[in-house]
Amino acid sequence: MAKKTEKKKKPAKKLFIPDCKRFTGYKPCFPGTACYQECVDPKPVGKKILIVNLDAMGAVVQTTSMLPAIKKKYPNSHISWITLKNAYRLLDNNPYLDAVYVWEPENWLILQQMEFDIVYQTDKTKRSCAFGNSLNAKEKIGFGLNKNGKIIPLNKEAEYSFILGLDDELKFRKNEKYGTQILQESMKLKYQRDEYVFELSEEEKKFCEQYKSDNHIQPGDLIVGFNTGCSYLYENKKMTIDQHVSLINGMHQISGVQLVLVGGPEDTERNAEIVRRVGDKVLSTPTTEGVRRGICYENICDVIITGDSFGMHVAIGLKKYVIAWFGLSCWSEIDLYDRGIKLIPEGLFCAPCWKKQCPYNLECIQMIDLERITAEVKRLAAIRAKVF
After folding, report:
1. Quick one: which of 139, 181, 335, 370 has the fewest CB in 10 Å?
2. For the chain, what are the domain ranges?
């Protein structure tokens, strides 16, 4: 009787870990595929880049202006960003980002186990610099800590920004560079005046249109928003309630203008007091529905009147026309991208100062030219009327 021939077993396929942006290691990228054997639609990771940005919310919005320059320099790249919990939603829908990490212990562990080609350490704070020092990267750009726990520039290009923080004469009197330019040059990027990268979702865009419809705002109206407040850190950036009331009473008489109050939770009582004093001359939007809804309420406006605040940076990112007043902060560092005007306290020796307490009775706020703001809104309303 002939012996049966045994079939040879096929050797098992070697485990395959794809170099692909979509690969997670815990589920297939596409239903029914076996990523560990073969990548059906590879999307190579390329340069692995991390941005460490734990600064204020307005600074996070402003820092997005470096993303186009990164992508131009490294077209094939995977860009991650770590930021604070109150700011991470500002990066929603950002087309340049592959991953966003919230500042929390779990994500520290994950990022410290990864290896990056480049870490951009954008903040001049001990917390950010210490975390940047702890990461594995072939190149670290920006700022770090030395062995004495002092903040230092990590590359020659970052020295100007470093010195700017130490030299009041340079920062307050001599510097003529925008903050976006200083940032991008510090990060060894080519500055081309790229704009902030700030995107709304389709749902958010529909919400904005529905809100205008529900509140009977007509397509031909010039919608003028008052960003009434700022963070608690520098409360002296605020215009007074009396000044807002004066502006609203004057602008209410301009034909084709719809006035709106916008702001965050810290502005709730302030906005309520303004409404109490001006009545239905202004539409007051909600202030406690979260940062993304707050952004939507700014987005319904054509013009934003604001101090140097998070709301101002949101307006710039949304490409609104911005009428911004300045006092204690450095107006030379703000780029409105040719969509607005800056009101600065001309001839005031103490401004800018970046002081939290003013020894001079806030002259810079008292000097805000309300007539010029009203005249600019009249000019914009006249232009709008010709279009509609």
Report:
1. 139
2. 47-186, 202-387
Within 8 A by CB and 6+ apart from 197, the residues are 64, 65, 67, 68, 94, 95, 96, 317
User: Which class in CATH covers the domain with range 47-186?
Assistant: alpha beta
Going by C-alpha positions, the residue among 126, 119, 154, 148 that lies closest to residue 49 is 119
Size of the chain in residues = 388
CA dihedral (249, 367, 221, 289) in degrees, to 10, reads -90
Q: Where are the beta strands (DSSP E) in the chain?
A: 47-52, 77-83, 99-102, 115-121, 136-145, 151-153, 222-227, 257-262, 283-284, 303-307, 321-325, 340-343
Two structure tokens written together for 229: 């407040």
Q: Which CATH class is domain 202-387?
A: alpha beta
- Given a cut of 70, the residues of the chain with pLDDT beneath it are 1-13, 20-26, 32, 35-37, 39, 41-42, 232
H helix or E strand, kind and range, residue 109? helix 105-113
